[in-house]
Design brief:
Blueprint (H helix, E strand, L loop, with lengths): L23 H6 L10 E3 L4 E4 L4 E6 L2 E2 L7 E2 H4 L5
Antiparallel strand pairs: 1-2, 2-3, 3-4, 3-5
């Protein structure tokens, strides 16, 4: 049996945005719900990071979860006391 092009699912279109990442325009207007400061998008970790609040908010299926109870405390992860 030979492989044909139709036997393989097409890859993602590089011209379309990645559905697992938030819309870049949305990232421009979002702020930290705790400090009201700016958020930095950490693509590698899949998080929005607030340096002022020392919190990292998860991004799930392209949707930022901006709830303090869902956030990861940056100081605890680095072994620093609060």
């Amino acid at each position: 049996m030979t492989d044909s092009v139709s036997d393989h699912a097409p890859g993602p279109d590089p011209k379309l945005p990645d559905p697992k990442l938030p819309d870049p325009k949305l990232l421009e207007i979002l702020v930290c719900p705790v400090s009201r400061g700016p958020l930095h998008h950490d693509r590698a970790a899949g998080e929005l990071v607030s340096q002022q609040a020392r919190l990292a908010f998860p991004i799930r299926d392209g949707v930022p979860i901006l709830l303090a109870e869902e956030a990861r405390n940056l100081d605890e992860v680095q072994g620093m006391p609060e």
